[in-house]
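Give me the fold.
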Amino acid sequence: QVQLVESGGGLVQPGGSLRLSCAASGSRFNIDVMGWYRQAPGKQRELVASITSGGSTRYTDSVKGRFTVSSDNAKTTVYLQMNSLKPEDAAVYYCNVVARSNLGYVYDYWGRGTQVTVSS
């Protein structure tokens, strides 16, 4: 199993910044992808940003140029630097990890979510 611990959410004014962190720990799994999803009330969960074990990143169009996803050298922690935050960025942000076990099985793991509120 892989356990995910998120941190960094909070309340900021429009134009402000937050940095989310998600630390993965547990069994000897090979992490293929780490990323962030978000879900606002009444809306579907959407992928915000992700990074592969090889360092490739992707972003939803609405955050390009404002958000940056990265990982540490051990590939066990994923970060989301969020700049120039807008009210529409407000949501619960969930860390997601796609990992492969030593037996070759692929699993999705989810954090409990961290609230990001953008309001003046």
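The radius of gyration is 14 Å.
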